[in-house]
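Quick start: read one record
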Amino acid sequence: MSKYWSQLTRTLDPYVPGEQPKIDGLIKLNTNENPYPPSPKVVEAIRGFDTDRLRLYPDPNSDALKQTLATYYQVANNQVFVGNGSDEVLGLAFMAFFKQDKPLLFPDISYSFYPVYCGLFEIDYQCLPLNDRFEIDVDDYATANGGIIFPNPNAPTGRALGLATIRRLLQQNTESVVVVDEAYIDFGGESAIALVDEFPNLLVVQTFSKSRSLAGSRVGFAIGSAELIDGLERVKNSFNSYPLDAYASVAAIAAVQDQAYFEQARDKIIASRQWLDQELSQLGFEVLPSAANFIFAKHPAHDAAALYKGLRERKILVRYFNKPRIDQHLRITIGTQHEVEALVTALKQIL
């Protein structure tokens, strides 16, 4: 610990991302990346990019991308915010909305960046436990708070709330901001974007990293009332006026415009998820219902850490969380059909 660190820096417990090892022949099923490449239209757009533009700053407002997203989701331009990955969008939302007198509420088993942001921005928070089926009970959130945030589908469990349930939560909570983190929504959930005109305190955050195969481009966005978007813009322009580079904007626009490719890749991932769910169940695993591009499973007769190690020895990487309540579960990203078949073969050997 350096003597030059501030007191805040000394107290931080940083987020630990999924491992990114450089191992030849590795089947990487640990960070929920899309196993399929970006749309050919994305590749074409990048290849046609005028590199002379790189000497200029990008559009600070990302107006072309905002217009594309507004058209796609049928909202107004001033209801769209874009940022350098959804993690940045979430971080700006924490700064803009959650530093309040009352605690921020989120699930005890959820995206582990949330408590990290709370530490960084000195936000008081309270974790509310999922039930025994690892579900969010929205009635638990009907209490005074400085904001609510949760992923839908939840991570790492994969379970999703329907729109009727989210509407009930919003009806119970009208005085603070509710952020629905929809990183995995395209793989089987119902997007709360349909509710933003009904609830001015609702902010929906999505990413291009998962269903659009652009994790390397770092593009995220939020949709909500013009009032909330203006708050995000004020914080963004007090921190980084140019969060989205010109390459990323071009790639993101092309990805949104190729709906056919998006649906094709998404449907293959859903089919592989359903196949893997059935195969693991036949091997004795308990698999939670998933609406994401991963599944969350445990085997009652085999230690999760040992299974993780055995798979790694066979060059298959999944995610293991050594945390209370979930230390016997593995989170497995849905890869290509070939990759999930190799995973099942390896598990049969280990079991």
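The first helix runs from residue 7 to 11.
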